[in-house]
Amino acid sequence: MRLVPGEFAVKARKALHRLVPRGKRGRAVAAAAVVVVAVLGAITPMVVAKVTGLPDGVALRVGSTEVTEDQVQQRISALRALYGIKPPEGADQQDRFRRDAAKTVAVDVILGNAARSRNILISDQSANDTLAKMISTQLTSSGQGSFTDLLRAYGASQSDVIDEIKRQQSADLLFQAVTSDAAARVTDETVGQYYRDHQDSMVEPEKRDIQNIVVASEDQADQVAAAAKAGQDFPGLVRRYSLDQATSSAGGELGLVERSQLEQQYADAAFQPGVGGVFGPVKTAHGWNVGRIVRIEPAVPLTLDQVRDRLRDQLRSQQALDEWRTWLANEIRNANVEYADAYRPADPDTPPPAPDLSGVSEDAHPPSPTDEPR
């Protein structure tokens, strides 16, 4: 069975995400190595004006390394193939993404130079072994032939994948080298103080057992909500009206869920009423919803002993990320990157944005040290 391009992009993206460590360090490395993967698109080649200071056809220069417009385009094609990025629309977006792409490549060069200066080298054999494992474990239904065909369809090649693997693995080792002393600066007192400063938020979050009905229109949802609020049997309404085949046979039961597991607009409505309360209509990606609260498990405070290890890991990760970003900002400034006018990003001397590190674990949710006030 051959994968269609969309299926390949999903599988390849999941597989490549496993090439760097899971968790916060891996996300930090990915954010540094691929500056704007989340927003880059397949940017069409374009003719740019001659730029003073750089030869024709050169998009940027880092030290003695010149990167051509074609090389920037090749990098974009590889990112599209590997991460399933959709092409942007509109001239303004195209312009911004082209500039962001150039910055991605510039940071790649800077990180590569820094890794080599620390004798961090990833062998072709190591990268090929990782790729072979990825194909065998993640793309078993299509195999090597389909893998290569689909890469070619996106204008990328297996060597692009190998290069991406080497970038990620090299960036991970560089991250470890730069931040090796960060963990020691997080002491038991640091953890205890953070707990005391955020004790009100150190809780096992409230959970709610919800029954839900999904219908196609707001008018129908209004009718269902009125019937439910008038006291009609909710499971009966589920069986009669709900379009959600996954829950309709079980009385619309969603089970015990936390606010963070729900779409925001649905959560805002579902976490208002008490037990037995009906809420809605609420529009979500799946349709119009009417819900009923079956039971509530209130939030439970967590002791320092319960969260100590997770907080320590979180604070160490944040300390390492802060140190990494400070180091990276200095590296970018000191690199004196030159951009052609059509490729110069809006903020050429700043590091990539920090990834979201919110949450300590799946079963406890004290705030991240990077959480911003809402």
Automatic annotation (TrEMBL):
Q: Which residues form the PpiC domain?
A: 205-295
- Gene source species: Amycolatopsis acidiphila
One Pfam family for this entry, by name? SurA_N_3
The transmembrane residues are 28-48
User: Protein name, please?
Assistant: Peptidylprolyl isomerase
DNA damage found in the keyword field: no
> Where are the residues of the annotated region Disordered?
340-374
A GO molecular function held by the record: peptidyl-prolyl cis-trans isomerase activity
Instruction: Tell me the keywords, alphabetical order.
Output: Isomerase, Membrane, Rotamase, Transmembrane, Transmembrane helix
